[in-house]
From TrEMBL:
This is Helix-turn-helix domain-containing protein. Transmembrane segments: none annotated. Residues 67-115 form the HTH cro/C1-type domain. It comes from the Bacteria. One of its GO terms (molecular function) is DNA binding. SUPFAM superfamilies: lambda repressor-like DNA-binding domains. InterPro entries: Cro/C1-type_HTH, Lambda_DNA-bd_dom_sf. CDD domains: HTH_XRE.
Length: 119
């Protein structure tokens, strides 16, 4: 873990340098070092640059979509929804209904308390 911003910035430069070499061109030692520094950078960022917590159901669903690296179409399929319905809910043009909330809870693991408080 980095103890300050200077160490973090130096590590980020080294991470970029290693990444620019290409994964296939790294020695085992370099690949190990890259992984360790990336984990340490992520831990530092989580503490010093936390993402704001979602305040609405659409924000929470978008965060989960980002974390799962899903397109909106893939998320709609995962939730068992039509793409237009999901898009309308995420854009605030339609209120989340019970089937949507149930799918978000079951498929994305969103806390039911959050869903009830924000529905």
């Amino acid at each position: 873990m980095f103890s300050n911003e200077v160490e973090y910035e130096a590590a980020m430069k080294e991470i970029l340098s290693l990444m620019n070499k290409g994964e296939g061109n790294l020695s085992k030692t370099e690949a190990w070092k890259l992984r360790k520094m990336a984990v340490a950078a992520e831990e530092f960022e989580d503490i010093h640059y936390p993402l704001p917590k979602p305040k609405t159901i659409p924000e929470m669903v978008e965060l989960k979509r980002f974390q799962l690296k899903l397109t909106q179409a893939a998320l709609a399929e995962m939730l068992g929804l039509g793409k237009p319905k999901l898009s309308q809910i995420l854009n605030g043009k339609r209120e989340p209904d019970v089937p949507f909330l149930k799918a978000v809870y079951q498929k994305l693991g969103v806390d039911p308390g959050f869903l009830l408080d924000n529905a």
